[in-house]
């Protein structure tokens, strides 16, 4: 693919909030997940092992089962930054669900510095974050 075609095929990702951007990101994520979760990494296997290690460390941190853990609010929402924290929360919830799927399909489990984590714990974490966003939190009005 020449330089011009490459730029044309990716130019839609430069536009904020364009429908093409979500489609491109979704397709790229799906392709990356297939390589990440399979043994098709080939000569990039060491790179993918590093990503897998980072994913493991991040999930352990979110679940407060690592040496350095992600902060949480008193109500249980993970807290990373003062502004636009929900971007981080929704991404972490999505990644926990996806990582749980990966572990299930690979027949693996998550082992953190403070012990093993069940796949249900990953899904419960994800659900707790989404539930918090949807109103199941200390400030919710019922």
Please give the domain count.
2
Per DSSP E runs of 2 or more residues, the count of β-strands stands at 4
- Low-pLDDT residue intervals, each spanning 5 or more residues: 1-28
Q: How do the helices and strands follow one another from N- to C-terminus?
A: HHHEEHEEH
Strand content: 5-15%
User: Number of helical runs?
Assistant: 5
Largest sheet report: 2 strands, antiparallel
Distance between the termini: 56 Å
**Helix content class:** 55-70%
- The whole-number mean of residue pLDDT values reads 77
Q: How do the strands of the widest beta sheet line up side by side?
A: 1-2
Shape: elongated
Description:
With 142 residues, this protein is mainly alpha-helical. It folds into two domains: 1-37, no CATH class; 43-142, no CATH class. 58% of the residues lie in helices and 7% in strands. The protein has five helices and four strands; from the N terminus they run αααββαββα. The chain has a two-stranded antiparallel ribbon with strand order 1-2. A two-stranded antiparallel sheet has the order 3-4. A hairpin with a 2-residue loop joins strand 3 and strand 4 (115-117). Helix 4 runs antiparallel to helix 5 (119-133). The longest helix is centred in the last third of the chain and has 22 residues, at 85-106. Residues 1-28 have low confidence and may be disordered.
């Amino acid at each position: 693919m020449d330089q011009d075609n490459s730029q044309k095929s990716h130019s839609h990702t430069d536009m904020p909030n364009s429908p093409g951007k979500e489609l491109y990101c979704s397709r790229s994520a799906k392709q990356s997940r297939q390589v990440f979760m399979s043994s098709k990494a080939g000569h990039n296997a060491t790179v993918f092992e590093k990503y897998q290690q980072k994913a493991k460390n991040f999930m352990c941190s979110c679940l407060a089962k690592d040496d350095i853990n992600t902060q949480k609010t008193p109500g249980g929402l993970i807290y990373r930054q003062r502004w636009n924290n929900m971007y981080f929360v929704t991404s972490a919830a999505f990644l926990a669900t996806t990582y749980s799927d990966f572990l299930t399909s690979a027949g693996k489990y998550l082992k953190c510095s403070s012990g093993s984590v069940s796949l249900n714990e990953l899904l419960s974490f994800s659900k707790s974050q989404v539930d918090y966003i949807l109103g199941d939190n200390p400030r919710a009005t019922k």
